[in-house]
Amino acid sequence: MADLGAGTGLLALEARRRVKGSGYVVAIDLSADALSECRRQAGRAENIAPLACAVGDALHIPLASESVDVVMTRSVLIYLADKQAGIRELYRVLRPKGRASIFEPINETRERVQEEVRATGFYDELQPEWGEIRAYYDAHKEGWWGTLVGWDERELIGWFEAAGFSRIEVSYELVAGVRTKKPTKADIAAGIRGRPNPNMPSYGEVARQVLGDGADRYLDRYAQFLRNGEGPRSASAAVYLVAKR
Fold first, then answer.
1. Distance (Å, rounded) from C-alpha 171 to C-alpha 167?
2. CA distance 131 to 118
3. Sheet of 51-55, strand order
4. Which of 36, 50, 64, 202 stands the most exposed, by the fewest C-beta atoms within 10 Å?
5. Can you tell me whether residue 158 is helix, strand or coil?
6. Burial of 179 (0-12, 13-18, 19+ CB in 10 A)
7. Other C-beta atoms within 10 Å of 45: how many?
8. 10 Å Cβ neighbour count for 9?
9. Beta bridge partners of 132
10. Does 67 score more than 90 pLDDT?
11. In sequence order, what DSSP letters do the residues of 4-72 get, joined into one string?
12. How far apart are the first and last CA of the chain?
């Protein structure tokens, strides 16, 4: 079994316990530091599968063709510009009748709802600064989150079919029509400082890039707006997909 995008080993370490002595688990990730932590957590234990760690990426999986029975990934394909190539790599390393098991958020659903919220004027009291920051995000969309949107579960299924997988089972989870809960001060501070994905700067960093000396004053207004108002309508969707080679 291979865990692609293993990070510090959340899935790989659990897989060891399930596989036990009947096989082995390979944790694969771009980060050598993350894999070092995975090894540290693995330690020594009886009646669990051996663990190997390998630095590699999803477009060049460091495994021989037809070498594993299962490949699992969680939120990996969303970061690939060429998702079809990544899926073909999953197919390549699987033995006949092997399976790929993946989880991917469908960010296009959330993106559509956010566009609808913006169109209602929800953020108008934060103008013009909010609009200037939004324009900056839009100008950098392709590099920052272009791979995360623009596709949904239909394209995903089609890519697995095109790669040659013989049977594809999909579970789709949608949560829609909800309003985000009113955040705490700590939530707001974390949201301003945190990076939504590895390719993007934080909201605070963008605000300072766009607004310069006026950024702190705007961010105070933004935090107050989030504390006092009702959260915007939101939605989220995700796909759990199992495909047999």
1. 14
2. 10
3. 51-55, 25-29, 2-4, 68-74, 94-105, 233-244, 167-179
4. 64
5. helix
6. exposed
7. 9
8. 24
9. none
10. yes
11. ET-TTTHHHHHHHHHHGGGS-EEEEES-HHHHHHHHHHH---SSS--EEEEE-BTTB-SS-TT-EEEEE
12. 14
Q: For the chain, what percentages of helix, strand and coil (3-state, to nearest 5) are there?
A: 50, 25, 30
127 three-state secondary structure: coil
Task: From residue 232, give the alpha-carbon distance in Å to each of 105, 122, 123.
Answer: 20, 8, 10
Residue carrying the six token digits 């477009």: 59
Q: What are the helix (H) ranges across 101-150?
A: 107-119, 129-139, 141-144
Which amino acid does the sequence have at 185?
K
Contact 86, 58 (CB under 8 A): yes
Least confident segment among 31-45, 119-133, 208-222: 31-45
